[in-house]
Amino acid sequence: MQSASTVQVTIRRFGVWNAALGLLVATAMSVVAGWLLAWHEESAAWSRAALLALALVILCGVIGLARRQPIALRWDGLRWYVTDPHGGLRDCGVSEMRVMLDLGGWMLLMYQADAALPRRWQGGWIPVQRRGIEDRWQSLRVAVHSRRTEAVAPAALDRQIQSG
Fold first, then answer.
1. Alpha carbon distance 138, 1 (integer Å)
2. Tens of pLDDT, residues 30-84
3. Residue 7 burial by Cβ neighbours in a 10 Å radius (0-12, 13-18, 19+)
């Protein structure tokens, strides 16, 4: 079986992801507000303050998740490369890219990078939507859903090329 053809995309739009996070925040804030309204005891003032602090932590955490840098994904026919989503410019060689959720026009990808990289670059989640990459969407979907061939170490690949 042939692997998918090469594809390279830069993910810049995260509208669906941000909408889902907004819904998550609205739900969490509703739960916190319900708890606050349900407690009418005077002695529960400390718990109200704790729940309010929790709501602020949730809100700040989701704002941090919503502020994403562009992410470049590249499939060379053998392996995936992800431009460091933590702000650097280096490619992380990815040993595994899996589709965790596919809604047709939106996918949630999970990647596991090579173990030789620093821990913070060893894996993560990438929300991908069709909007903004319409011309390469089908190629990207084929690549992430394609059956993986056995990983070949670069040195072994060089030896195969030299032996002809």
1. 19
2. 787 777 777 666 556 777 777 778 778 877 877 776 667 788 888 888 888 888 6
3. buried
Classify residue 82 as exposed, middle or buried by CB count within 10 Å of its CB (0-12, 13-18, 19+): buried
Q: What is the 3-state secondary structure (H, E, C) of 7-73?
A: EEEEECCCHHHHHHHHHHHHHHHHHHHHHHHHCCCHHHHHHHHHHHHHHHHHHHHHHHHHCCCCEEE
pTM of the predicted model, to two decimals? 0.66
Check: CB of residue 94 under 8 Å from CB of residue 123: no
What residues are paired with 113 via a beta bridge? 94
Q: Residue 68's CB: how many other CB atoms inside 10 A? A: 16
Question: What is the strand order of the sheet 123-129 is part of?
Answer: 7-11, 71-75, 80-83, 91-102, 106-113, 123-129
Structure tokens given for 77? 């026919």
* Cβ count near 24 (within 10 Å): 13
